[in-house]
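// run 5 | inverse folding | seed 20
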């Protein structure tokens, strides 16, 4: 019977609830005996309490250690490898956090990692995307080894809330490295929703024309309470910083509503939004590839169309 350990992602004491709940949902697909969530922090109380409300979680294991003040893979990895004893599966979200952390855990456990798990076929058989999402491969992990996998959060719905799991203080005796230390964290600040967890996203592409012109995208996103994204072409042109990039080499997202403004629709970009609910494309080029996958398409000049849409919103 499967026993799953989910590694919670959090920052500044606040749980990344969406990513963690989607990872729990993937764990639930195994129909396991139990799902435990592990929170590693200097003070894990806040994030652990949040994690305990996710339905399907058996218990939350709170590991307090001053060394865990920052999510360093080289520091967390040895602790997770120790804690994983007795678990058949170790899951984490396929975010920057999980992609950095789980290869370390897999190496310490001496197993191969499965990346971007999107479908559970059985306890050791899964599906994951390859070739920028153009193909789906079925992989089988050895039955006599623990499964270490990152979960493609865009492919899963969040597990429900309303759970009441117990929070258990856990001590992990692991030798931590001394060659890795935290220097600093540089992160952009914004009042807009987080791009990877937002229900609505408005993205701009090369067609926006300039960094100055991108203000029209930001303004429209603010009108509808959406996060802002961008194509790689817009990022490479210097219109917006790279943390807004959506696509194969950027963020993989699955909002309920995705509005693509002035984006041609390169396959690398489409890979990042393939799981979105409703896709709206606005482009003056009627032959844009974005129209081929859009649920709603509007051919027109974005600098005329967006003000008209904003006027309708005001009404």
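// decoded
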């Amino acid at each position: 019977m499967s026993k799953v350990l989910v590694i919670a992602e959090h920052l500044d004491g606040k749980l990344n609830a969406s990513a963690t709940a989607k990872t729990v949902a993937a764990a639930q697909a195994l129909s396991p005996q139990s799902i435990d969530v592990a929170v590693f922090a200097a003070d894990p109380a806040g994030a652990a309490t949040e994690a305990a409300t996710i339905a399907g979680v058996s218990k939350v294991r709170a590991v307090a250690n001053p060394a865990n003040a920052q999510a360093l893979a080289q520091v967390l990895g040895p602790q997770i490898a120790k804690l994983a004893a007795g678990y058949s599966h170790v899951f984490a979200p396929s975010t920057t956090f999980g992609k950095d952390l789980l290869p370390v855990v897999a190496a310490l456990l001496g197993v191969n990692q499965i990346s971007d798990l999107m479908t559970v076929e059985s306890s050791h058989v899964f599906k994951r995307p390859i070739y920028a999402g153009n193909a789906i491969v079925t992989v089988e992990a050895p039955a006599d080894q623990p499964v270490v996998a990152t979960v493609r959060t865009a492919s899963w719905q969040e597990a429900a809330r309303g759970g009441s799991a117990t929070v258990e203080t856990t001590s992990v005796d692991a030798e931590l490295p001394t060659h890795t230390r935290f220097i600093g964290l540089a992160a952009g600040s914004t009042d807009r929703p987080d791009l990877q967890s937002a229900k609505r996203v408005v993205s701009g592409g090369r067609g926006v024309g300039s960094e100055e012109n991108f203000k029209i995208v930001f303004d429209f996103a603010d009108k509808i309470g959406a996060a802002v994204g961008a194509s790689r072409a817009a990022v490479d042109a210097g219109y917006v910083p790279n943390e807004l990039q959506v696509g194969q080499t950027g963020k993989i997202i699955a909002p309920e509503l995705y509005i693509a403004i002035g984006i041609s629709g390169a396959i690398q970009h489409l890979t990042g939004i393939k799981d979105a609910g409703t896709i709206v494309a606005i482009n003056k080029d009627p032959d844009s590839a974005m129209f081929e996958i859009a649920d709603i398409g509007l051919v027109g000049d974005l600098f005329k169309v967006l003000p008209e849409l904003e006027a309708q919103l005001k009404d």
